[in-house]
Amino acid sequence: MDQRVLVSHTAPKDFHGTHNWNKVCSSIASQLPLRNVNLKSALRNATTTVIDLNVALVALESVRDDGVSQIPGSILEKPLLHLYILYCQDDDLETYRTSLKKEVKDWHTLVTSKKQPEWLILQIVRPPDPSKTQSRNVFKFAGTVQSKLKTDFNTDDRDRVVQLTYVSDNANDLIWAEFFNKFKEGISNAFANAISVRREEVRRSEGQQAMPGWNFCTFFVLKESLATSYEGVNLFEDALYQYEELESLFLHVSRERNFSWFGALITPGEGDDSAPLLSISKKPYRDLILANTISVFDFRIYILSRRCELLAKMGCLSDVPRKVATFLGAFGKRLFEIEAHFPKFWIESWIYSGAITAVEQCAAWQRQYDPEAIDKAAVDSGNGELLDLARSQLEVIGIELGYLPKEPPFSIALPKRTRRASLAPANITISSEDINAILQSQGAFYDIYIRLTNQALTSYAEGGRRKFGLKLHGALAALDLHRGNLAKALSTFASLPAHYAPHFWNSLESYMLSRALDTHDLSQKPRDVEWMHILLAFLKAFVEHRGADMLVPTLAEGGKEEYGYLEGFVKALKEASEGSENETKHPDHPALSVKTEMKAKLAEDRDGSYLDVTVKNHLPCDFPADEITVYLQGRETDRHRFSTTVEKLSPGKTRLTLFCPVPASGLFLVESSEIRAGKLLLQYPQRKTPGKAISQHQVVKIPPDPLALNVRIFQSRKVELDRRCLSLKIWSGRNAISRLELKLSAPSVTFRYRDAVLDEEAEKVEFETGLTLIVKDLGKDKAVGFSIPYVEAAAVQNMRIEVEVSYTTTDEPDLEREVHLVSSLSPSLPVSVNVQDWFRESRLISTFSVSSTTHQHVRVAETQLIVPEAIDTIKATPCAIRKGTITVTPSQPARFMFALDSVAGPVKESLLFIVKYRLLREEVAYIIEDQVRATIDEAKKSQDIRPIAVANLIESLERDSSWVPMYNITGEIEVPEVKRSSTEEVAEVVENAKQRLLEYRHPESPTGVWRELRLPVDVPVKAIVAITSLNLIGTPFNPHIGPDSKVPLYAGQPISAELRIHTTFRWGLDQDTSRAYLLNYQIEDMTREWLIGGLKQGDFLAKSEETHIVPITLMALHHGEFALPKIKVDGQLGPRDLTAGGQVPPSVETYQSHSAVKVLVLPRGGRSTFVVGMGSEFDA
Amino acid sequence: MPSTLKLNAVAFISPQNHPILIRTFSKQDENTIKYHYIAHTSLDIIEERANMTGKLGDCYLGLLYSMEDVAVYGYITPLKVKIVLALALSDAVVKDVEVIMLFKAMHMAYYSAISNPFLRLESSMDSSIDQSPHILVGSPKWKNFRKRVDEIARTLGTS
Fold it and tell me: Scanning every residue of chain B, which has its alpha carbon at the shortest distance from the alpha carbon of A465?
């Protein structure tokens, strides 16, 4: 219906039809359609600007007067505005008065007599001729034609006369502005008036509903005329609203069963079921309405079609599919109430065709009204829904015809009713081609069904409806399943759950999974790993949903059977997993969960510990697990495996105790738990997830086991600097070990097991060495020690040694325990030794200073300097007087002095310096161990408590160091207060041991185990040793002073003396005694004490065992007792040596034999007078 | 005025699109899956609508779509919990006011159920399955919510 606003035009007879008239008309027409007209919208109760308004100009004569038809048509059928166009110059009053005025008057009378008196007079003038303007204006007293027109016709406030200065070239649109403003105003007013009149009529008619004779159809036509009027001026919203009101009124009326205006609900005609739903032209609806013969069916379709069209025009095309779908569903339901009147599947056919034709119509409208496809996605998804609706009709038909099974997802669409037998007359048939084809062949049904589903899928995909798409994929898979395309169905079913899983749509996920499982069974494929994964996923979904609202048919029926389905699967799971070749690992399956206790218990009777765990089975049936394992991770890389075997896990919580045979203690992190069923491993790793707090980490504490096998590594007691070696102590604890294998490893260190030596002090045991160290038949509570040499590739500060021990006990010969220990060994010694040497003529004095390198106190029992037996050229004598053990503290080193007497010749081999020492804490630990052992022996108790008691005592000693000084002196150990022991027995032993320790004294000679540090010491070499002496020979008064004479020496008195330098080459390497060296001596300047006369310094040739004598004179400068000057002797390169080149001066050590000699110088008493001649006499 | 609405099912969906509770009130058991499908597919449309209306802040999303014999209405709470009602499709005009009233009742039921402080306790305790309280509220363990929802459905049926 292309409606336009009509505007009538009239002109004076002599103007009408002229060339100018035509020009004016076409000029007006060229400005149409009208832009931006303000119209009053009833719905919004405000003016709405209509952007484009179609306006048609018609001659007044062509407009029929009052409508012949009684049918209320659109208000636009009559002209809204009457226009009078006259052509008259403004000053041509004469013409106006004589002819025009009358014609206008007649027209005005005619127009105003009509119902909608909206009119406008357009006066067209020529542009004034500039040459005449001046003269004409003189006579303008009588006014202009325009003012005349205004006074003659403007009856109310509004000015309805417009003057237009017409320029033929029509270049300027502005000249039309005023006219069109008036023109729009006129139309707008006229429309408002006309509508309000019509609305009044409608309201009146609506009010008469209750009155007899009121006819809905008549009312409908009246009301619809409002809608078409609105539509004509592009006020679609208002138009739509009219239809909505009509529909609700219709429903209201029909609810009151006031059907007298309608024929039947439906009079099905040929082809009704397949007719295009949204086409208004398929039936003469309007005539049917006017004739009161329209059926409800047609009437509803008509309203729907009109509404949809208006929606499409409004640009709300996306609403159309939804409206249609709702209508088809709702009205279809109504039709089913009188199902018997139709042939079978007629209604389905109608819905099917309606949906499909609506989709086509939408596409057509989209091309027409929304070519830019702004709303395309929304329309597409709507179309998808419609196609889906059509598809579900096919499902209904398919199920009834037996093409499809009556089960979800097909049965979803099945209405909840029973079909009544059709009583329809034979002349109504199903006309839809698709439906007829379906009725005839199953193949066609599947083709159409799949085609339609795919169409819907495409629409959904374009509309972005992913989840709808999934549903259709599910349906397709179900169809494949039904038709026996098992492989395809299985793959679809197996892939679908992944789409539901992310949002925890367990219900749908589990449904898909159960379908996949069923399909798998149907296809009789072997239950492989893939099947297991599907089943695990299914169980996961089941558990996460906690069994509620499961959509699996066998589960939903409830009762005991509910779990039979599940149980069968779980059992099959085990069988399948046992049959598979490889282990299947599945992380974090929620069907089971493992919770470990915080603390492990010791096994007490054997090595290892127990860990209690609670396994929770969330399934409603038994889970056939084989083994439960928990892995704990320690501080280092060590990992401990706690496990126990089970037969099954009952639903709910099961408390289990896991055992780990490896003795380990400390804090451990729960690394993961595992539940094994056949080859299936359900793993629960405790990973660090970024989102979660650290507190989620579970920690298990394993208490230390004092009686477990223990391997300790420490520095070898005997340390020889050129041969590195470590000590290893294995204590069997409570175990009688049949075989123990031990392997050490440390970065860049090679251990030489083959050279391992069993320590003599400890037990004897059979052992083998090879790549590892193997010990056999080690009894209970036995300790063996080994020394294992090693070679270090690079010197390290701290050696990290990993010890791997595997052992079997005689009690449990089948169980091999593997202990992994890490021990750190510092190759540095707790003591350091420094040597200082002093040379004498044939004797060398060496001082060995032993100091503690750490903060530990070190007890030194003995030091020895051993001359190898082969050497007879030298003799070593210790100078030590004190016997007994010496304590070296970090601040106080101990010195040990030795004298070496050179018998003959140089010594090339090195001597050996031996220090026997131990750390104070070690010594005390030995003492405690001994004392506790003695205490226990005395009390005749089991030695088993010994380690606990010892640990107890040592712990309390560590807390307080006040006992140390006392111990150093006497050996008494005063143990500070001991912490409460765990048992009475231990406490008693500890008390007794404390008493014994208090009475303990150092033994006379060192006892127990001592460490030994063996240092090779080279005899120092000195090429020349110069022994200097300064002998006083005599004073002027006593020319000869004996060595021990008490001759007084006075200050200022010259004393003659001799400097003797004796050189010996005994400590040098050079055997050639005939060689001479050039030496230089220098007497120390003691300018405050001595005045030295003679050669204070000079060179001399030194030969072995020769003495160089220099006479000098000394004079004491003041009285007192002071030492004689020192003499420095240096080697010098002789001229011969220089020529030889590259030689260094020989090393010279000077021994000042007079260095301790002090001389007493007396003050000079009395006075001496000296007369000194002035020299003049002698000169003369 | 007696309500013309007949409630077939209601679904509560969390802001993360996890189903909280899907409750059906029709007898046929095997049709349950239908409402699960409806709830799931509605999410697509709710998303569309929510994007379209943008920040208008209107909770009521209106008729989402109609499928077979049900009309599906959507509602999104200010905290983005989605409520989907599946009403039996009837030929009568469904007044939005009535549907909104129903939605508000459902929202209140959810709101009062989620206010249970013990829910949060449980959610933090049960760390093995990480669920926020609004998922838990729909679990069968917490009966209160189901009870309230059922009551609303019953009231609607009898009125």
Answer: B44
